[in-house]
Amino acid sequence: MMNWLLPEYIQDILPEEAWRIEGMRRDVLQLLHLSGYQLVSPPLIEYAESLLIRDSADMDLRTFKLVDQLSGRTLALRADITPQVARIDAHLLNRQGVARLCYAGSVVHTHPAGLMSTREPLQIGAELYGHTGIESDLEIQRLMLHSLSLLGIRDIHLDLGHVDVFQALLGDTAVASELERALFIALQHKDVPVLRDLVRGLPAALQASLLALPQLHGGVEVLARARSLLPQGTRISAALWQLEQAVQELQPLVGSIGIDLAELRGYHYHSGMVFAVYHPRSHDAIALGGRYDNVGKRFGRARPATGFSMDLRQISSLLPPAQPARAILAPYCADPALDRAVAELRGQGEIVLVDLLGKTEYRSELNCDRELVLRDGKWIVVAVKN
Fold it and tell me: Cα–Cα distance between 308 and 140 in angstroms, integer?
């Protein structure tokens, strides 16, 4: 075995892209900071029960687990930072009003989330706690779209869904948890034949509504069709109204918006409107989010919450290849005047490299297009001759 090989779906990030991703991280965090979001930095590893979300089989399968040599308890590497932020909001900050929190850090997955995904995403996101209205959903969605625009991502498509529709349809009928999960999977895959088999034995009206859900995807016209095909209980009506409001508010910020009432991603995680952003050059969603009012419950303090997250490594792959920054080459010599010139240039934001080897054949590796030379007793910057 060659020791320099990495595990599958684990990659090194080389200098040019690493610097770009770091700049992207700073830019998004600055946007969030100026929007009133406070930065938190949870640990990479915790007790497994703190990181695993109840009834979320996907999260359980995606999480690496190991035994703590100090306590003997099961630890887990975080596969998602959102549960950690919910814990911080519930027990460390313990605020009664609205809390706006943001984060950026690596997560680790046992399996890649998509065809071209890494198992070590660099997750960045924002969470808003303490508000139940659509205003907080819209704030988070706008921040997500502004973040993508700030990073140079164009031609995106926003998909909106609402898990309340599915939950409201099942709410008045006693459905076994195994059947509920099977229905969820069939709807996610839009597998109508399997769905038709699963709904047999359910009330006729519920059968018709569940079979309608896979067809209710497309443009904003889906909402009118949903109102004609689905029972208009309070929860369903409210969900459709929220989706309609989101379309009206977000349309100026995004290329296109779609509605998908069978989109139940994170069904046991989310509790209201969910959303995902897609790009023509990506097989998978490039940003995800939604309302998840119940996540804090496992920490003893459920709070209304909504948020978004994205993987900066995935976002960077959608941009043109990163180019190395051009630098200024300085000779290696003991000269206080040279030291002052180098410090002044670096203070102006220039990259200055000291030529330790002094060999011209290696200089092309340094990517310097200028150099410091001594002329008439002064160190000046001149263009490097080819």
Answer: 7
